Every structure is written in C-alpha cells, then in structure tokens.
Amino acid sequence: MLKPFIRTGLTLFALSFLLPTVNFSDWVTLVLASVILTLLYSIIRPVLKILTLPINIVTLGLFSSVINAILLWLTTYLVPGFEITNTVIFGVELGWALTILFVSVVIGFLHPLVKIFI
Prior knowledge:
Blueprint: H1 3-18, E1 22-24, H2 27-51, H3 53-58, H4 63-78, E2 82-84, E3 88-89, E4 92-93, H5 96-117
Antiparallel strand pairs: 1-2, 3-4
C-alpha cells in the first residue's frame, strides 16, 4: 500500500536531478507532492479517462498526456514549494503549458523504470 507513494517520490526526486526546472523547497515538500500526485493519479485520473474516452479514442491515446499534465499542474498548485519553471530544449523555450506536458511525459517514462527497482 505504501509502494505507489514511494515510487512516485523516487520518480519526482530523479526528475529534479534530470530536469533543472523541477524544484522542491525541502524533503517535506517532496513527500507531500508525491502523496498528492499519487492520490490524484489513483482517484481522479480514472474518472477523467472515462469522461474523455471519445477524445482519447480519436487522438489514439495522446490525450492521456494532457490528462497527466493537468494533474501535474494541479499538484504544483496544491503543494507550495513544488514548482516547475519553463524549460529550454534545443535552444527553444517552451511555454509553461508545454513544459508541464513535457515533464508529465518524462514522468510517464521514468515511473515504469522506478517500478522495476521497487
């Protein structure tokens, strides 16, 4: 029961090292962000996936990334001290919304890797 929280915490911790735009003020913020993000992913995400199923079918599943980005934005809004600033990729500065989308896609890649080790 505690494993999803630990996996999300380790994913966010690894993400803060990989991307300099993801910042935590302290360890308590990291734990709180992982708890809130895990709860949002396990409670609200399935409901949103069912509600947006027609859009998800038309876009061949790409709208799931938008749902994940919305939940990540909600986490940054709910947890003070957890912030994601604009990212620069190959000399192009992404806007705030594209940065959140990029970070949520990276979380989608990192989370299964962390799941292998835990």
